[in-house]
Amino acid sequence: MIYFDEQTGIFHLQGRKTSYLIQKNQQNHLFHLFWGSRLAKRFPDYLLKEIKRASYLADTDHIKEYKLERLPQEYPAFGNSDLRKPAFQLSYKNGTNISDFRYDSHEILAGKPTLTGLPSLRDSKGCETLVIHLMDSVQKVKMRLFYTLYQEADVITRHTELENYGECDVEINQMNSACVELPTMDVELLHLSGRWAHEAGIQRTALSQLNYRIESLRGGSSHEHNPFIALVEKETNEQFGKAYSMNLVYSGNFEATVDVDQQEAVRMQIGINSTTFGWNLNPEATFVTPEAVLVFSDQGLQELSHKYHNIYQNHLLAPQFAQKERPIVVNSWEASYFDLKEENLLQLAQSSKDLGVEMFVLDDGWFGKRDDTSSSLGDWFVDQHKFPAGLSAFIEKIKKLGLAFGIWVEPEMISEDSELYRAHPDWCVEVPGRLKSYSRGQWVLDLANHEVQDYLIDTMSALFREYAIDYVKWDWNRSITEAGSNVLLAAQQKEFYHRYVLGLYRVVGTLTERFPAILFENCAGGGGRNDPGMLYYMPQSWASDDTDAIERLSIQEGTSLIYPPITMGCHVSQVPNHQIGRVTPLETRGIVAMQGNFGYEMDLSKLSPVERLKIKEQIAQYKKIRETVQLGKFYRLSTSEKSNAKAWQYSKDSQIVVSYVQVQARPNFASKRLRLVDLVSKGLYELPNGEKRYGDELMMFGLAIDPVKEDYFSQQWVLKKVED
Ligand code: GLA
């Protein structure tokens, strides 16, 4: 519930396990009072009065020396007595950039208003929204702070809107989606970072009096950093400790910052990256920031992940796919790359079907005259040399085998050697007269241009209509450089990056609405744009271009911190692995790929009899556990050898699935056990070998791990609860 107490001026957003408190004082400034474990319905107005920093007692209501800097701000402005990093900065016609927004009124609404043009968590029963209206008495600008409380899911979303009701333009230089302050720096910064083929590594850093910044300047949310930031108590592990986190529902340049001030208070913010952003807010126009999802946990990272998984699966993903089990795919990429031959592909499809695969995905190389990365992006018509009888005839053969059909596209890109470029050279992202860098031999289409958006919507619609397509892998394989648009006025060029993202959302929003039965997979050279913004439209994501099972352990672990397993694409690939040359056992590749949406990225028509048998069993095994993996609860398990082994568990109804992977064999090993979590203490569980164990024993003693002399060893147990 959301409460407001007139007397104290305190708003209390009270979730199932969380409370968030904001206070307005008599001067109508807004202060961030508290975010943490759930409090009773109370309004502690002494908190602000008792803030004593550097022997300064902030009598916020009466004194003249009104030092905002000493007090926790809810949405700090630029240009007042708080000289820390602001949440927003505006420039006015008179050349000044000082703002002073004060509380004017508020509303508490049932449900949730939509964010125009942007993805956001969906409205749901039991959510309520607080809108705080702020006014600047000097400038004719209104600000609205939105807080939606998802009561049961225990999650708060925030965004800000700015409305210009004056006669002059207002320039927005920066406008974050959320800002919170913690009173102590006794926390660590936790974030996900990496690089292409090595995404989502969990990083933890102790804080000192510094400004920390996690960002993307690449045009997409990037492989380097996920738009996610958390502050966690130092001892926080999977089950214990407090964690405060923000995830931005946005697929472009973002910044997530943490600033430790001179009194050791910590300000955490997230929003559009101000380095590459500017916006002219015309009279009568409103600007809407992306949405930030705020999740707090006082029971470690496991609860944090559960809250994200639950809210994303149930309130972010397209409802028709949220609870729908995903097909087991075979993807042509690592099997044949650009060397697509119909006969080989049909053989691959036939063998895959015999093994139990459910969908065939035709990856890059099927269109234009694309034999390598140097041509044809933009020419979305079938290559008649590769498919002489046409694509429909090929798809028909695939469907006759009993397989669904998926296809790869990269619509936001253009090759210099393409009919599209010859017809529309001005549709590229570019700054005339400047170098236009190639990357992977390609350029980016200007999605800030409405005509380009319409063209993509029409071309892709025609493709999806003409062919019997069940699944689309939507790729984005390069960053944006030399950013500029041929259709934007000089004054609007600074808006380019955000306009690109809005254009992208219009394109994918229209297409996913028009083709609700198609399952879209989001890909950007793997996880280069794996963010809640894309997940809103495309309910799954290819986690990484690195398909090596051991590399995938940390990539999938980091990804699982926020994103539910049902959204995570994981495939078994050939050995030696194409990215790093490592040879791992087929069993281990299978167990690691079973962590999410399962499939194969290898030539299943060229297997030895033993491999064929093993893969058949693997697929049958995944089908037995798929519902638990995709619709159950996921847990990362602690192992005694943190860096050398990873383990995880899923639970749904009476099925428990446990997987364990040990990276390197060690000599003279001690006997090892793996403790399970969150079982019914008195419940009786049957192990794969028929033995039975009680829940409390499995949680206290754990399962015995087989001692083996072998690198990259793995084990999986499927347990059945036979008595409650
Ligand atoms: C990207 C994807 C790959 C594959 C290639 C095709 O790198 O991540 O899975 O689709 O493009 O060019």
Descriptors:
globular; 724 residues; 3 domains; binds alpha-D-galactopyranose; alpha+beta; Immunoglobulin-like; Beta-galactosidase, Chain A, domain 5; eight-stranded parallel barrel; single chain; TIM Barrel; 21% helix; ten-stranded antiparallel beta sheet; 14 helices
Q: How does this structure look, described?
A:
The chain has 724 residues and is α+β, with helices and mostly antiparallel strands. The protein has 3 domains: 2-315, Beta-galactosidase, Chain A, domain 5 (Distorted Sandwich), CATH 2.70.98.60; 320-631, TIM Barrel (Alpha-Beta Barrel), CATH 3.20.20.70; 637-723, Immunoglobulin-like. The chain is 21% helix and 32% strand. The protein is built from 14 helices and 40 strands. The strands form 8 sheets. Strands 8, 9, 10, 11, 13, 14, 16, 17, 21 and 22 form a 10-stranded antiparallel sheet that branches. Strands 23-24-25-28-29-30-31-32 form an 8-stranded parallel beta barrel, surrounded by 4 helices. Helix 8 runs parallel beside helix 9 (496-514). The radius of gyration is 27 Å and the shape is globular. The protein starts with a strand and ends with a strand. Alpha-D-galactopyranose binds next to loops.
